[in-house]
Amino acid sequence: MTTSTASIAPLTRLVRLVHISRPVLWINTIGTGLVGIWLTGRLFDLQALPVILWLTLPFNLLIYGVNDIYDQETDALNPRKGSIEGARIEPREVRTIAWAVAATNLPFLVYFLTALPPAAVAAMLLYAGVFVFYSAPPLRFKTRPFLDSLSNAAYALPLLFVPLALGAAPLWPALAGLLAWSVAKHAFDAVQDVEEDREAGIETTAVRLGPRGTALWSGAWWLVSTVLFAIVSLPVAVVNLVIAGVLVGRLLRRPTPATGHRLYPLSVAFPYIAGSVAGAPLTFGIVMGLYP
User: Global pTM?
Assistant: First the structure.
C-alpha cells in the first residue's frame, strides 16, 4: 500500500461519516444553539464554543448514526436514502459508526461534566438520550405513534441548555414555541415515508393518521408555535405562519406521500428562513446595544 493510498482511506471514512450525519440538517442543532446564545444578549461567548462544536458533526452523527444503525430494514426500501437526504448503510459499517459516535461525543461529555453547571449538563443528557432512544430499543420512540413526534420536541432543548451553560435564564416563550414547532415538523416530514414505514411494519404518527390527518396534526402544532413566537417576535411568527400554511395547505390539497416528498425541500429550508428572520434583527440589536 502506498502512502497516498493509505491517506485516502481515512479521508474516505470521514467523508462517509459526514454524509451519515446529514449536514443539510445541522441547522437544526447549530442554528438553535446560536440563537440560544443570542437570546442571552451576547453575540458570542467563548464559553459556549465547545457546546456549538458538539452540535456540529459529533451530535448529528449521534442522532443519525444511531438512527441508520437501527433503521437498516426500512432504509433499504426507501428511495430517498443514499442521497443528501440520508445515507443507506451496510451492516459492515455498524461497528465503525458506533466507534465514531463514541469517539466524537465522549470527550465533550467529559468536558461538560467538569466545566458546565449541573442543570445545563442534565438538559444536554436529556437531549442526547431522547434522540438515542428515538431509534434504539427498548424505547424506540420512532415506532410509537404520537410519541415519535412528541419526542422530537427535544430539538428545541439548546434554547434551554445553552443559556444555562452561560449562567443565563432561558427565554421560555421561545423555547416553548420551538418545542411545538419541532413536534409539527417531525410528523410532517414523515409523511413522505409512510409507504416504506408501513411496509417495514413501523407505525409512526404519519402512518397512523395518514397524510391528511398528519397535515392537521402538524398544522395544529405549528399554530401553537406561531402564538408563542408572537410573544417574542411578530415577524418570526408571521413567517412561521406563512410557511407552515403553505406546507399544510398543499398537503391537504393532495394528501399523498408523494406530495410530502415534493414539499420536503421547503420543509428543510423552513428553519433556514425562519432562523434568518429571527437572527438578523436579534444580531443587529445586540451589536447596536438595543438588546436586551
Answer: 0.92
